[in-house]
Amino acid sequence: MPFSGLKLREVREGAGVEREQLANDVGTSKQYISHLENGIKKNPAFDLVEKLAAVLGVDCREFVGIEPDAGADASAATDPPAVDPPKKRGRPKKPV
């Protein structure tokens, strides 16, 4: 899903954070934040999205249009899905 610069702007303004302050907090330039918000830059690195979310106090999924589950465990978003162990191959053992 594409990154939403409009959502970034909405969250940033709602938090009362200036572009320059946000840029300093996440280690980028004010111009880059502006480019993200205006759709000039569309695919920021995931680690930057995580930093933006942390500084603004939101879940990073909000920036890609996925609303976090209200009651979901926060680790559920980062834990890999459970996978059944691979089945053994070969001949079955003969009963004794």
Structure explained in plain terms:
The chain has 96 residues and is mostly helical. Helix 2 (19-26) packs across helix 3. The relative contact order is 0.16. The model has no long low-confidence stretch (mean pLDDT 82). The chain has a domain at 5-65: 434 Repressor (Amino-terminal Domain) (Orthogonal Bundle). The chain contains four helices and no strands. It is 39% helix and 0% strand.
Briefly characterize the structure.
39% of the residues lie in helices and 0% in strands. It has 96 residues and is mainly alpha-helical. It starts with a helix and ends in a 40-residue tail after the last helix.
Task: Describe the secondary-structure layout.
Blueprint: H1 5-14, H2 19-26, H3 30-37, H4 46-56
Organism: Limnoglobus roseus
Domain HTH cro/C1-type: 8-63
GO molecular function, one term: DNA binding
CATH homologous superfamily title of the domain at 5-65 = lambda repressor-like DNA-binding domains
Q: Any guess at the CATH architecture of the domain at 5-65?
A: Orthogonal Bundle
What's the shape?
elongated
In terms of structural class, how would the helical and strand content be classed? mainly alpha
Radius of gyration: 21 Å
Output the keywords.
96 residues; mainly alpha; 434 Repressor (Amino-terminal Domain); 39% helix; elongated
